[in-house]
Structures are given as structure tokens and as C-alpha cells.
Design goal:
The complex is a heterotrimer of chains A (104), B (455) and C (401).
Chain A: E1 12-13, E2 21-26, E3 29-34, H1 39-46, E4 51-52, E5 59-60, E6 73-76, E7 80-83, E8 94-96
Parallel strand pairs in A: 2-8
Antiparallel strand pairs in A: 2-3, 4-5, 6-7, 6-8
Chain B: E1 3-7, H1 11-21, E2 26-30, H2 52-56, H3 60-76, E3 78-80, E4 84-89, E5 92-97, E6 100-105, E7 108-111, E8 115-117, E9 130-132, H4 133-143, E10 145-146, E11 150-155, H5 159-169, E12 173-179, H6 183-188, H7 190-193, H8 197-212, E13 217-219, E14 222-228, E15 232-238, E16 245-248, E17 251-255, E18 258-260, H9 263-267, E19 272-275, E20 280-283, E21 295-297, H10 306-324, H11 334-354, H12 361-364, E22 370-372, E23 377-378, H13 379-388, H14 395-402, H15 415-425, E24 445-446
Parallel strand pairs in B: 1-2, 1-7, 2-3, 7-21, 9-17, 11-12, 11-17, 12-13
Antiparallel strand pairs in B: 4-5, 5-6, 8-18, 14-15, 15-16, 19-20, 22-23
Helix pairs in contact in B: 1-3, 1-10, 4-5, 5-8, 10-11, 13-14
Chain C: E1 4-11, H1 15-26, E2 31-35, H2 43-46, E3 50-51, H3 61-78, E4 89-93, H4 96-111, E5 116-120, H5 121-127, E6 137-141, E7 145-146, H6 149-162, E8 166-169, E9 171-179, E10 182-189, E11 196-204, H7 210-215, E12 224-235, E13 243-246, E14 252-255, E15 260-269, H8 282-295, E16 303-308, E17 312-314, E18 321-324, E19 331-335, H9 341-358, H10 384-387
Parallel strand pairs in C: 1-2, 1-11, 2-8, 4-13, 11-19
Antiparallel strand pairs in C: 3-7, 4-6, 5-6, 9-10, 10-11, 12-15, 12-16, 12-17, 13-14, 14-15, 18-19
Helix pairs in contact in C: 1-6, 1-9, 3-9
The chains are: A mainly beta (104), B alpha/beta (455), C alpha+beta (401).
The structure holds flavin-adenine dinucleotide (FAD) and FE2/S2 (inorganic) cluster (FES).
Amino acid sequence: MRETVVASPMLFRVASFDTPVVNLTVDGRSIQARRGESVLAAMLSHGGHVRRHEHGGAPRASFCLMGACQDCWVWIGAGERARACTTPVADGMEVSTSPTVHGG
Amino acid sequence: MARVVVIGAGPAGIAAAEVLSRASVEVAVIDEAPRAGGQYHRAPAPGLALDMRRLLGTGYAAYETFHNDAASVCSRVDYRPGTLAWGVHGGAVHLASRGAAKALGYDALVLATGATDRIMPVPGWTLPGVFTLGGAQALLKDQGCLIGRRVVVCGSSPLLYLAAVQYLRAGGEIAAVIDTTRFADKLRALPDMLAAPRVLRDGLHHMAALKRRGVRIIHGATIDAFEGEERVGAVVCTPPNRMPLRIACDAVAYGHGLRPETQLAELAGCALRFDAAQRTHVPETDLDGRAGQGVYVAGDGGTIGGGQAAAVSGRLAAAAALSDLGATTNDVDLEAGRRMLQRLRRFQRGLATAFRWPGERAGQLDDAVILCRCENVTMGEVRAAIALEDGAAEVNRIKAATRCGMGRCQGRFCGPGLAEVAAISAQHPGSERDRLRVQAPIKPLPIALAEDVVP
Amino acid sequence: MSAIDVDVAIVGGGLIGCMTAFALCKRGRSVVVLERGRVGGESSGVSFGSLRLQGQHAVELPLALRAHEIWETIEEELGESIQFARHGHVHLALNDEHRARLESNARHGRAHGMDITLLDREMTLRRWPFLSDKVVAASWSTRDAVVNPRLVAPAFARAARRLGATIHEGIEVARVEQGGGRFIVHGRMRDGSEPVISSAALVNAAGAWSDTLAAQFGETIPLFAAGPAELVTEPIPPFAAPVMHVVDGSILFRQTDRGNVIIAGHPRMKVDAETRRARVPPDKILINLARLVAIVPRMRAHAVIRSWTGIEGYVEDMMPVLGPSSTTPGLYHACAFSGHGLQMGPAAAVAIAELIADGATTMPIAPFDIRRFYATGQQRTLSLAEEFQADVLPPRDGLVR
Ligand SMILES: Cc1cc2nc3c(=O)[nH]c(=O)nc-3n(C[C@H](O)[C@H](O)[C@H](O)COP(=O)(O)OP(=O)(O)OC[C@H]3O[C@@H](n4cnc5c(N)ncnc54)[C@H](O)[C@@H]3O)c2cc1C
Ligand code: FES
């Protein structure tokens, strides 16, 4: 499923990172971020939500931004479960937001 | 040598570790975050060009002092950032970090786990663009991002004004601040609030700053809905004796103060009691934070009290742990600490009046409103389960019947609202009540973590 | 609460107590259920939810099958869903010894008319491709089912209440006296009040605490408390319809309709029946997860979100105590279900209701008589070391009177 991040970004960056650029993909789509950014900040700087809810499919863009609500879990690479708000980006990271790619 | 494990590297945890590090005990400080600071003193990610001095204004001095202390303390103890404590059992905390699980035994355990936002559900609160108030601040400090370009800050909390001011300083636009507590209640709280004149002064200062910048502040409104399709586009609220207002925005920062993170205390065997003033369950402790079974609770994880109270309670808890272990603690002035803590707690009581938790809203929300965002359980489903119980519904029974509180967050966000619906149905709203019980792991644990465990 | 006068007082509002109340009400008896905490609040509300037929003890299978007939139409009778689903049950073998067990179970089951298919490794992996090649064989029984255990006792309690039963929560049975051919049951409520209930018959459905009640009548049930570790994952797209169960019980899992995978694994742990606190130690969580990924590698990509256990009463032969008291006319025991009370519950309840109403039952319960413990030389029929952690089992001589 190529379900994704809609075009209009959620977040508004007001301070920049003076760190190297990292390239990552979110559900196959390439995006750029800076080292030090969280996966969540990177995703929401390029799109309007983080995932679709498993019951009902409504878009979710996370909520607490501090590791409490657990509404921002994604998969990294070959199926590492990670919480986007507390996971830093890394170069070459492949983020996916739907479990189907891991065979469920 | 006895080992004391401190969970949490916020103001309470660092203050506790500070005292402990000067005694002859082995000290470990565990925090899930990559950097010390907790929610209050959260520091920017490395390489982020964020001017904290400008952002924090008068709050900068405390921030700077904290981080200097923290750096020195963390270098002297076994500091483990990026490490989640997900269980406590048989005198050991169970940790997960970088894909590995470990257990760490303790002789004393200081829980300085802090708090997270307390939420009353509102129609539309699960829409993209609606974030917690604490989260909106955390994102700014940690990542240099605002949650949107035109933000409504709402709920009821002293942090409303602080967050709004910080967003303005950072270059954001505040569409409105909607405070659900009436201004008259704020005045009523003044005598208690005078217990901490500096904090009160800062609060008034923030309100004035917002007014000067032309930010609309609405007191005593009910929040009717967050509207939008795939993203929040407006907040609808009704000010007292007025028609509903619709305020356009592209993001919402929402919260009704804080609720303590008590999960580890519960797993460690501490008794929890319902605190009527805070309208939440808190670990039962003495003034120094002794919670029984070698466990000590400090900071917001015990009683919501703010950064200053947290630091004081951290020192007291450390001193209590040391004296119970038979170590010396002559460098903490216990009496002064206790007096200060009591004063700050009085102030906090004032805050509970000035920024009311709108428990009664739970009774007015439409059946279609989602109560449990993890499991997508609606108010209507919860009410139906309550009706089946002839009004004798208890939260864990409702949880069993509806899955409300059974999701990934284990009731952190639906718990307070659920407790109110149950209390309303039981027709004893202010009285002693039950709470959702937690189990390990207190946060989701990737199963891959167990791959290296020998079965 | 003023003095209550009923035909039958049932001590314990677990699923056994509630099902028995429902069965008795259908026979026109007046019933009160006395529950210390909440209906279904102990082991009944926290079980794994499996209605397993395959591999049931040969002696128990006749009663288990009668129970299953009742389960299959129970939702109509209750008028509400308890999420009964006939997903089937798969026993997995990880070695030759396991495989031999599957074969012998299949023989027993088929003799009782069950539909059981044996699959070799290749067939197993083709049928359930998510399993790893550690699995060497499987046996698949199609009639086995699951329910949502959290809903069971409350649903039966409601159904019984509709038929006139009184279900009392928050009342502990402190002591029972006899007088004038009746049982005088002294309760204790949390507020300190001490209601008295008078009944013609008394049912001991007190779960892990039923030995205490039996002792008041001079009877010994060699009961010990334990609990299996249960874990649940976040919701996952559906992949595993049947219950999957390594035949030695070291790991079993099932997926709920909402996608969560529930994981359990023996040996069962020590729990504290006195304080009624029971938690799964973190080490045990990790061990069970490691066992799970070993046979279902794809689970590594998901997270576990909670653990729990419950306080269940077991006896060494792992069979219930079901039937009349050996000392006291009018007293009936329905306890010691030893890990499978959910499955057997409906038949056990009918048996007790028939004994009370008719003086005899059509249910095959003869093997479960309490007097079996009085015979000397009682043998362990199962390898209990596989079932329980070493610290759970009572000392050998404590058991036989
Ligand atoms: C974790 C777990 C998983 C399980 N999985 C399965 C499964 O998959 N399939 C299956 O068939 N079975 C399973 N079981 C077993 C099954 O749950 C039990 O056999 C069944 O619930 C027993 O029901 P009960 O009513 O006897 O016990 P309980 O539910 O324990 O009820 C006994 C009740 O008596 C009350 N009580 C005790 N003393 C007094 C007193 N003096 N006064 C008043 N009240 C009193 C207690 O509070 C309690 O509510 C499992 C058990 C556990 C713990
Ligand atoms: S946003 Fe709440 S846990 Fe990540």
C-alpha cells in the first residue's frame, strides 16, 4: 500500500539544524531532513499525518509529542517497530506507516 | 555498596541524583529521553539553532542552572539516557534501550517520572493538528518546530499562557487563547497563589504580554469542538452567556493541566490514593516521598507541583532514601525543604482552582465523541456499557466491556475522562473512586527486543 | 440488605457461579450469587478465552463435549454477544515427542467424533505460512472455539438476573452455619455490614478460594493457586484464525477479531491468592516473547502492549471437583477447574443445577467426585513440571489425606 503523507506539511519550522542533510523515505517517498530531527518532525514537516488508525482508517498525526500517547508508532527498515516522536532520523532510513509491508 | 536507581532526569530526578551522588551509594539515573531535562527543562536536539534565552525569557536562568547541574551530576553517576524503564518486579527495574532488554537491581528506587497532559475529550480531538499543550512546547524546544502557523491554545492550565508567549516569541501566530476556567475563579484562587509570588507574577506577565500583542484571550468558555476533515481547521467555543464562536486555525494546543505518571509506582507495589484536589490518583507518600517497599516518589510523578517543587521533593526523597539505607545526609536541610514544599503545594492548590479540570464535561459530551483514542471507543459505547451495569459501573469493568483504556497508551489519555463518566453514572462524583490498573510493559515493547533472550 | 431467604446460595461470582445461577433460574429456583469483588473479576475475566476440545484429558472429554454443545448456541440464549467464534484449534509439535502426543490426542478425539486433521511439516507451513520451520507437525481440530472471557461472567449474571436471580457484588462469605436443615450464610460487606442469607442448598464456586469454604464442612480440596502469563500485542492485520498452541503449552497464541494477538505460555506462575495480587514478571514476558518469535518470526515487527495473569485454583490431577459434598447434604462443589473452567463451565453449571433440582444429573461427572482425593496412592496423571513453575507445586505429602 502506498498510503501516505498528504502534501501540506503540518509543522512550521522556526529554528534550523546546522547538521548534515539525511535522506530517508516515508512509505517509499523520498524526503530530506537534518540529523537531530525526530522521525516525527521529519514526517510532519513534509505531510499532514503520521498514519491511518487501524480501526476506521482516520488520519492521525500523533498527539502528545513526548512518548506517552503511543499514537505515532511506525516501522523502520525491515520491520523495526519505533515511535516516531522519540526516534531520530538516520541517513537511508526507510519509514513505513502501514503494517502490510511486514506481512501483517 | 547500596544501589539507588533514579527514574527520570527532570528537575526531581536530577535533584535527587545530585544529593545521592554525594553520598556513598551507587547511583543510576534512567531516562527515556536522550537528554536530561524532563518536560519542563527540555533542551534542543544537538545542532538545533534555537535561541533558548530568547524563548524562555525570565525562565532562562533556571533552565541554565538546571542544565549545568545536570551535566555535572550525570557525569558522576551511571546515567543511562535513551532507556525506557518498562517494568518493576522483585527489587529490579526492567529496562529497554537500543533494542536490548536488561534488568537493574536496586536497594532504593526513586521514581521521578513526571507527568503528561490531562485531557478531556472534545469532538474532533483526534484530528491531525490537535496536539497536547505540553507536546506543543516540547516540539518547539526539542525540534524547533511549531505545531502549525496559526494556533489556538486552549484548555485550562497555567501553561496556556506560557506556551502562547513562547510561540509568539518563536514567530508563530496565536489565533486565540481559550481558558475554560472563569476569570472569577482565578481571583478566588489568589490567596493560595500568593504562596509563590514569583510564579504568579510570571503568569500575570505572560497574560499582559499576550494582550499587548493583541492576542484574544477568552475566559470561562466551553470548548465545543475541534472542526476539520483531514486536519483541524477551527475551534468552536462558547464564552459565558454568549453565542458560540468559531476561531479559524491550522493547529490546536490542548490540555487541562497534568496528570502524574504513576505506572511504575503502581508496579513497584506503592499504594495509590484518590486526591480530591487534583482529582486524580497519586502514590501514597509521606512529605519526604516515602512510598513504601524501598520506593520513593518525587516531583510531578507524585504530586503535580511544578519544576521548583519537583527539585525540592527530589532532594527530600533522596535524603529519605539515604537515611533509610543508613547513609548520612547532613547536606539537605530537611526542615527548610519541607516548609518550601508545603508552600509550593499550597500554591498548586490555588492553581487547581484557577485552572479547573472540567470533569462535568464528560457528562455533556455527545455519544459520537471518541473517548479512547487508541481503541477508538466512543462515549456512546461507554455509556451503553454503564447502562448494562445498572449504574454501578466501575472503570475496570467498563474497560473490560468496551476496550476503553486497553490500547497502546494504557489509559493515559482516556483514563481521566473515563473516571468522570463512571463517577457521574455512579452518582458519587467527588468521592473515592477506582482507577484503571496498569501492567507491564508500561509502554509498548517491540517484540524484537526479546529475540536475544534465551527462551 | 435484610435477611434473604433463597433456594440456593452460590458462593463466588466467577463464570462458574454465574452460569450455575443461570442454569438454576431456568429450573425455577430462587438464587443468590455472593461475590466478594466483581462478577468475573478474578480468573474468569482474564482467561485466554480458548474453548479447547483437542487434547483435553480423556476422562474430561465427555463433559467437555457436552459443554461445547451448550457454547454453540449460548449467544441466542443470553441474548447478547460474547464474541463466540469457532475458529478451530491447532496443536503444534516442535519435536518427535510432541508429534507423538498429537497423534495420541487425535486418536482420542476421533474416538469421540471430533474432526481432527494431522499435518506434517510441509503441509503445516503451507497452510500457515507465518510459522517457522521449528514446527514439525500440527493437528487441527475444527470445532474448538474462542470467546471473549471479559464478557462471559457479566453476560451470564445479567441473564440470570433477568430470570430473577440476585447477584450481589462486594460481599464476602465469611462463614457458613447450618440450622433447621438450612445453610445460614454470613456475609461481610466493605462498609462493615454483615448480611445473613438463608438457603436450602449451597454451591461452592469460590475458584481459587474454594478449599477454604470446603474446609468449613470438614472437606479437603488439595487446591493450589497459580496463574498463566498472558500478553497482548497491538492490533495486527488478521493472519492467524485458529488458536495456535505448542502442545507442551510452552507458547500459545490467538488473534482476536480486532487484530490483537494474545500470547500465553506455561509453566504457570506463583500468584498470591491471599492478597489477590498477581503480575507477570518482566523476565517471563521476555521469555514468552522469545518463544513466540521463534515459531512466528513476523511477530518481531510488532509490539506487546500489556501483560496480565489471574488467580486460578488447580489440583494435582488437573480435573475439576464437581458434585455433591462428601460430608454435607445440600452442599455442592464446582471448583478446581485447573486451567480449563471456561470451556467446561456451561456443562458443570447444568450438572449442579440438575443435581439440585432433580437429585441426579445426565452430565458425565462421576470422575470429578471430591472423594477421589481420599483414596491413597493417587497418581500424578500429567507431567506437572511442564505445567507449573517449581515454586508453585505444594509439597507432595500435603496433598493426600
Ligand atoms: C490467565 C488465565 C487463562 C485461562 N485460560 C483459559 C482458557 O483459555 N480456557 C479455559 O477453558 N479456561 C481458562 N482458564 C481457566 C478459567 O478461567 C477458570 O477455570 C474459570 O474462570 C474458573 O471459574 P470460577 O468461577 O471457578 O473461578 P473465578 O473466576 O476465580 O471465580 C471465583 C469467584 O469467587 C469469589 N469468592 C471466593 N471466595 C469468596 C467468598 N468467601 N465470598 C464471596 N466470594 C468469594 C472470587 O472473588 C471469584 O470472583 C484460564 C485461567 C486464567 C487465570
Ligand atoms: S506523539 Fe505521543 S507517543 Fe509519539
